[in-house]
Amino acid sequence: MYMTIFKLIWPYLARQGAAYAADYLESRRQQRQAQPEERPADRPPYPPCPEPAAAAEKSAANLIWFSLSGVLLSAALGLAGYLLVRDSR
Q1: Vertex 16: Cα angle to 10 and 19 (nearest 5)
Q2: How high is the pLDDT of residue 35?
């Protein structure tokens, strides 16, 4: 009987909770937008971007190491899985 009452009331409670959370988040967003963002005059708004050539060289080197680590990790996990299955038989 209690579960039936709970199933009837739950959608109403969930809807009210979602509406309360949405109102709270909306008010916080409006407060944040109303306050001007203060930045020091000597600091640029965004950090400088790296040079494209340097980023491409790092990317190529990282690609090799990430590929090797993925192969080794998959081999180790495959071996561990094989040993678990083999021992259970």
Answers
A1: 140
A2: 80
Helix (H) or strand (E) holding 63: helix 52-88
Cβ neighbours, 10 Å, residue 42: 5
Q: Which two tokens stand for residue 62?
A: 């990282």
Q: Among all chains, which residue has been given the structure tokens 């967003």? A: 29
For 30: left if phi > 0, alpha if psi spans -120 to 50, otherwise beta; the answer is alpha
Distance CA 59, CA 63 (A): 6
Q: Please check the confidence at residue 44 and state whether its pLDDT lies above 70.
A: no
Over residues 31-53, mean pLDDT? 75
Quick check: 39 and 45 in contact, CB under 8 A?
yes
Considering only CA atoms, which of 20, 39, 16, 40 is closest in space to residue 28?
A: 20
Residue with tokens 């094989």: 82
Whole-model pTM? 0.39
